[in-house]
Amino acid sequence: MSLTPSQLTALRALLDRVIPADDFPGALAAGTDNYVLRQLATDCAEEASFLLLGLTQLDAEALARHGPDQTFATLLSPQQDALLADLAAARPATAWPAPRAASTWFHRLVDLAQEGFYADPANGGNHDAASWRMLGYEPGTTPKPTAP
Amino acid sequence: MTTHHDVIIVGAGLAGGILAGVLAEGGRSVLLLERGRALAYSEIPGDHLRNHRLSLYGDNTTPESHGHPRVFVDPAGGEHSVLPHDSRYQLNAFTVGGGARVWGMQAWRFHPDDFRMATRYGVPAGSSLADWPIGYADLEPFYERAEHEIGVAGDHSGTTHAPRTRDFPLPPVSRSPSAEWLARGADRLGWRTVTPPLAVNTRPYQSRGACIQCAQCIGFACPTDAKNGSHNTLLPRALATGRCTLVTRAHASRVLTDTTGRAVGVEYFAPTTVDSATVERRTAHAHTVIVSSGAIESARLLQLSASPLQPHGLGNHSDHLGRHVQGHDYPIAYGLLPPDVEQSFLGPGVSVATTHFNHGNPGVIGGAMLANDFVKLPLIFWRQSLPPDTPRWGLANKRAMRDDFRRGIDVRGPVQEIPSPASRVTLDPSVRDTFGLPVARLSGTTHPETVRTAAFMRARAEEWLRASGADRIWSWPGEKKFSAGQHQAGTCRMSADPRDGVTDPFGRVHGHDNLFVCDGSLHVTNGGFNPALTIMALAFRTAEHILADQ
Ligand SMILES: Cc1cc2nc3c(=O)[nH]c(=O)nc-3n(C[C@H](O)[C@H](O)[C@H](O)COP(=O)(O)OP(=O)(O)OC[C@H]3O[C@@H](n4cnc5c(N)ncnc54)[C@H](O)[C@@H]3O)c2cc1C
Ligand code: SF4
Questions:
Q1: Exposure check for chain B: N or C terminus, fewer CB within 10 A?
Q2: Do A115 and B56 touch (CB under 8 A)?
Q3: Would you state the pLDDT for residue A146?
Q4: CA-to-CA distance for B318 and B324, rounded, in angstroms?
């Protein structure tokens, strides 16, 4: 299942608000978008169509709230945050497939983003251990293993 | 293909490895069957999404993610076919060494009263609370043996809940500053604390190195092989005798019995060659058979082995097989450390505990040991340990992670569960595994008394944080649920009278002279402690009994 260019743009804009950059890298600098894309193609393939549908719906939400020349990615950060807070609270401005679908969808993407960002770098969403550096966490499993 | 042995052991987990070691050193020829693989450290990934503490998409030891589902029945009666990494599966670990390959190593002796719960508290309605047919004194020498031969680090004079004669072979783990802070809080309350016993090499022991205090301990394999179990002690000793044959990727499918009920062997599926994808059915014959597959799979295997003499499963003459499933309800109180105390990230992490509330609590049955937690992975902290009013996303969430990760503290403990006969492992009537065998079906829920004791213990955990001076404290109410998981127990309870259980006090299946069960299945009750040291002590005791008797 592959994303349309506008779904990909919406995903990146969303991740940038879920884990924004500040003094420390955010989701995009840590490659969390790549983690989410990989999950959609593998472990989360069964959920993928719902998650992609929500990305399209995200642009529809931007349009419904801010006019026809807007997509989620073109909104200002405070507008994006307000929109996401509405979705989180199950207060969409457009019709979603089920009453609480907007909230379910958003929280699932939050989970995916955070798990990529805080997991080990080998999972692809925590490039250069960006989040672990922020927290001061290291697995500390070296010096070299001596176990068989 | 048919082979002949003195003893066949089904499962090379924590107990199976001990049985193999004692029996092979005692001169017996042993066939040890294990459905998982023998994994090197490098084959157990340090994956923070797929491990035995957080298994979102898989874990780091299960050999095959599909082909071996279980059926979980929810409280509304809904049936769910679940895979190993799903928490409803109640997985321990399928690999040589079993759960101990990745465990947290807490190695507690049960309290003497844990063996006589019915006598002490009476039998609540709807429960199957009962005394063990053996007492603490029967197990004491074997607890001591497990501590020395597996390798437990502990505080001899501080461990007072259970009488002991010999010191631990290894000095206790060092206390972190946050654990010292908790110990001072407990002092203020008049609660005695102890450094918990852990099966870890705090210094080199038995030719292996010491723990390097990494921050990725529970749920993962150990980089220095300092995490003690049978896989690095008794199992290598068994193999060194030349009398123990370990077959991995070998799934036992049936214990074979004759018309008198004697076990004659085991039927199993194994790859035609070590790494082959093709499996073949094999039969092995033995003088003695021991089932040591964990409380869920042992109960399943005995049911799969039904015979004309025992149509409902071996040992199921009195309808106890597969019932009384227990694990531990595990209440937790969370808090934030005051700014002048920092959380340490030196593993394993558990370094302060109290046994003050294991028994004698007003208005509730039993209780629990309480302790601080293992070093937490960042993602686990994000999922479980942020204050409840923290936004789940955005800058506020990121800042809370940054500020609170080094301030998070929690206290938790394994509540002694009140067994219920309705909590069960049966064979599912329709779902089959890859070999065409009915899978385990898990149904039932915890007894209400368990939930009451858990609520009491949650309040004690909060009280401890409060007295210590935590900045914020919160916790979540418990609920009734099917409980087994990593501490699974109770499905083949031992009993003096065959009408009251599945095995005799040595683990011999009633009515079957040479068939034994040895794992948490035997536990009549599961103690207010992590169960593995008791499982180990029983394994030493059963193995010695077999050497003397069989
Ligand atoms: C992450 C984690 C942390 C833990 N921390 C602690 C702790 O701190 N303290 C504590 O006391 N306990 C702890 N435990 C629990 C502890 O590991 C178990 O109590 C212990 O391993 C039980 O030993 P066992 O021999 O009964 O079963 P297991 O160790 O589960 O061994 C059973 C073996 O049988 C095999 N098997 C099953 N069915 C078959 C079959 N049909 N044919 C062949 N083989 C089969 C399995 O693959 C497995 O290897 C922890 C467990 C985990 C996973
Ligand atoms: S904390 Fe110690 S025992 Fe645990 S995995 Fe790390 S090195 Fe091994």
A1: N
A2: yes
A3: 63
A4: 13
A91: its two tokens = 């207060």
Domain locations along chain A: 5-135
pLDDT tens figures, B2-47: 899 999 999 999 999 999 999 999 999 999 999 999 999 999 999 9
Distance A110 CA to ligand 2 centre (A): 31
B478, B455 contact by CB (below 8 A): yes
Pairing of strands B515-517, B279-291: parallel
**Closest ligand, as measured to the CA of B349:** 2
User: What radius of gyration, in Å, describes the C-alpha atoms of chain B?
Assistant: 22
3-state secondary structure of B14: helix
Q: Which ligand is nearest to the CA of B13?
A: 1
- A125-145 b/e with 16+ CB inside 10 Å = b? bbbebbbbebbebebbbeeeb
Question: Are the beta carbons of B103 and B227 closer than 8 angstroms?
Answer: yes
Pairing outcome for strands B70-73 and B438-443: parallel
Report the distance separating Cα B373 and Cα B334, nearest Å.
Answer: 10
B449: tokens are 């008394």
Residue A145: pLDDT band with limits 50, 70, 90? low
Pick the closest to residue B91 from B82, B81, B104 (CA basis).
Answer: B82
Whole-angstrom Cα distance, residue B450 to residue B465?
23
3 state SS of B196: coil
The yes-or-no verdict on residue B391 having pLDDT over 70 is yes
In chain A, which residues have their Cβ closer than 8 Å to the Cβ of B48? Answer: 118-120, 123
pTM of the model: 0.97
Closest alpha carbon to B171 in B157, B183, B155, B159: B155
Give yes or no for residue B276 having a pLDDT over 90: no
Q: Is the pLDDT of residue B258 over 60?
A: yes
Q: What is the mean pLDDT of residues B264-269?
A: 98
Residue B354 has, within 13 A of its CA and on its CB side, a CA count of 25
Tokens 């994994």 correspond to B39
User: Which one-letter DSSP state was computed for residue A26?
Assistant: -
Task: Note whether A120 contacts B46, CB cutoff 8 Å.
Answer: yes
Q: In sequence order, what E strands does B203-276 have?
A: 244-248, 251-257, 263-271
Q: Compute CA B304 distance to the chain's CA centroid, rounded to the nearest angstrom.
A: 23
Q: Of the candidates A112, A1, A115, A101, which has an alpha carbon nearest to the alpha carbon of residue A58? A: A101
Q: B251 in helix, strand or coil? A: strand
Q: Cβ contact (<8 Å) for B347 and A145?
A: no
Taking the C-alpha atoms of residue B538 and residue B419, their distance in angstroms, rounded to an integer, is 20
Q: Which domains are assigned to chain B? A: 2-549 (3.50.50.60)
Question: Which of A20, A118, A141 lies closest to B378 in CB terms?
Answer: A118
Per-residue pLDDT reduced to its tens digit, B70-84: 999 999 999 999 999
Query: Which pLDDT score is estimated for A142?
Result: 86
> What confidence tens digit (pLDDT) does each residue in B302-348 have?
999 999 999 999 999 999 999 999 999 999 999 999 999 988 899 99
Q: Report pLDDT for B467.
A: 98
Q: Give the model's pLDDT for residue A148.
A: 64
Q: Which residues of B touch A81 (CB under 8 A)?
A: 394
Distance, CA of B55 to CA of B67 (rounded, Å) = 18
